[in-house]
Amino acid sequence: MTQDNNTNNQNIQILHSQLNDLLEEAKKISEEIDETNKKSREEIDIIHSKMNDSIAQIKQICSDLDQVDKEAGDELDALVLERVNELEE
Amino acid sequence: MKKENINIIDSKDIDNMKLDNEKIVNSEIERIGKKQTAGEALTPTEKALLFTVTGQQESAQKLKETNPVETKLDTTVDANLNNENQTRFDVMPERKKGLLGRIYEGLYKIPGVNKIVGKLEIAYNNIHINGLTNKERKLQEEIDEIDKEIKLSEKSREIVQSFIIDAKSKGAPVTALEKDMFSTARRIEDLSREKADLQEESQEQREKRDLYINKRNEVADKLINYYDEKIKPMEKELDNLQGLKSQLDLRFIATEITHKKQKTDLRDIEEKMAHIMQSWSEEGRSEGAIKKTLKDLERYLAKGKESIEKEKNKLFDEQAEIENDVAEANRLVALYKEKRDEFVRIKENRPIEVKKDIKADQSLKGVPLTESIFADKAKERLSAESYVARWNEYLQSGNNTESLKTTIDLKDFLETTKWSNNFVLDFEDFKKIIPAYYRSKGTLVNNDMLNNTLDKFYKEKV
User: Fold this and answer.
1) Hey, are the CB atoms on B251 and A47 less than 8 Å from each other?
2) Do the Cβ atoms of B279 and A78 come within 8 Å?
3) Least confident residue range of A81-85, B20-24, B183-187, B283-287
4) Mean predicted lDDT score pLDDT of chain B
5) Model confidence at B108, in pLDDT bands (50, 70, 90)?
6) B228-255 b/e with 16+ CB inside 10 Å = b?
7) How far apart are CA A75 and CA B171, in angstroms?
8) Under 8 Å CB-to-CB from B49, ≥6 apart: which residues?
């Protein structure tokens, strides 16, 4: 009877120990996941920020070109107006 | 009243316009019509002319039908002019405003016409203002007519002169003949003066036209030069963007593969836990003694899964956003490059070219996170170190018949992917990470060739 109890207790201890090992393993993986996400996030944020800078730079150039378009468009309007005036006189 | 409804040209004004170019306009319309029927692309000026002529006919007809009293000039043109030009426009006679309306109307009414390209094209190709004008042509015709008359008068003077000589030799009176000759000489003088005036006027017209052409070319050159200057840094930024996007694609894929492995690890724990619990219940024990441990274990498993899922969704959204941003940047650069090419084409009077659709360059698109195109591959699992070693060995071996020989630096590969030496992955993942890795390093590798090499590598080495 005592031997049976001892065996049972041993089994319980083994199961307990196995469960604790699994718990430690799960904790470790959970930390790994957090670490993976953290590192990934840091890198993505840096790259994304650089990409945003590049896109902003491109948009700024587009805006400069739009301004040149506007000025050139006004000059062409003035030329065409002048020309139409000359033609019909 | 809506703006487009105000845009009406008085039919009376149209009738009163001196359309000296009517024949040319008609032949132009005929030519454009044929071009359109043949399915050829029309230039903005051609579209504008076609639209203007047919549109005005319809507008005038509609006006007569609906409101014969109210007549308003085209307000589309002045609404699009800057203040300075608007002041010039305001003081123009109505018929000139009408002419300008005819020239500009299509530019502002046809959707999709690029205004600056359209304006440049008008300045270069519009039949009213380009090349030898009708006024110049008329002046030249008048000069030619006067020339003919001068020649005739001179001939006449020569004949009278010979009559006078003949009459004098015969002693006949010459007073009337001399009077006639004097009158012819006066006529020649008058005609010569008239011719000189017309030539001067014609010269002035040519100078004005040349001045216009010079100014117009200056504007075109300024545009082209400025675009040339700005497109280079734009393309450089786009290359930079592409490089950064490749790095991000690699990061997305590496994270996805890492998550996949972590999910497998979590699943293994779950299976082991289930196995332990089964043994526990077979012993007839209650869960009371291990309740806290179980709860903690379940909490960590759930937390791990949730973190992965949350990050996965975040990455998915982020990737879609980046795809859009890069596609938009690519579209913008293509748009301005196309405009620059259009300026050059118009200046050189080259025919319009068939344009490539400005869409996101497919090569810029990364591999979607959800895509699993390698599902048919066996799930051989090796460490990252082992894969790279085998891959490098295969690339340098005689078995590799493809031209890809660029081996991978293990240290850099592990640093870039943030994996450990013994990080285990299957071939499906290896095949996914390799193209992304090469792209992120700026190594130009043909996708088909890389896939072939990977497939052969898989058969021989894995």
Assistant:
1) yes
2) no
3) B20-24
4) 78
5) low
6) eebbeebeebbebbbbbbbbbbbbbbbb
7) 74
8) B25, B28, B29, B32, B106, B127
Q: Mutation test of the interface with chain B: which of A15, A52, A75, A76, choosing the one with the most B Cβ atoms within 10 A?
A: A76
**Cross-chain residue pair A51–B244, CB shorter than 8 Å:** yes
B124-135 pLDDT, tens digit per residue, is 877 566 655 677
Q: Cα(B331)–Cα(B357) distance, rounded to whole angstroms?
A: 10
Chain A partners of B219 at a C-beta cutoff of 8 Å?
72, 75-76, 79
Q: Is the pLDDT of residue B317 over 60?
A: yes
Does residue B73 carry a pLDDT above 70? no
Q: How many CB atoms lie within 10 A of CB B452?
A: 14
Question: In Å, how far are B46, B129, B138 from B126, measured between CA atoms?
Answer: 9, 6, 19
pLDDT range class, residue B17, cuts 50, 70, 90: very low
Task: Give the predicted TM-score (pTM) of the model.
Answer: 0.66
The separation between CA B82 and the C-alpha centre of its own chain, rounded to angstroms, equals 25
Orientation of helix A2-88 relative to helix B291-347, angle to 10°:
20
Q: Kindly list the residues from chain B whose CB atom is less than 8 angstroms away from the CB atom of residue A37.
A: 255, 307, 311
Higher pLDDT, B75 or A68: A68
Q: For residues A73 and A79, what is the distance between their CA atoms, to the nearest angstrom?
A: 10
**Residue B51, pLDDT above cutoff 70:** no
Contacts of residue A84 in chain B, CB cutoff 8 Å?
Answer: 92, 96, 99-100, 103, 128-129
Whether residue B303 lies within 8 A of chain A, CB to CB, comes out as yes
| pLDDT for res B381 | 78
Confidence of residue B200 (pLDDT cuts 50, 70, 90): very high
Structure tokens that stand for B346 in this block: 């118009």
Provide the residue type at B396 as one letter.
Q
Best A13, A34, A44 residue to mutate vs chain B (most B CBs within 10 Å): A44
B-facing residues of A in 35-74 (CB < 8 A) are 36-37, 39-41, 43-44, 47-48, 50-52, 54-55, 57-59, 61-62, 64-65, 68-69, 72-74
**Distance separating alpha carbons of residues B17 and B13, to the nearest angstrom:** 6
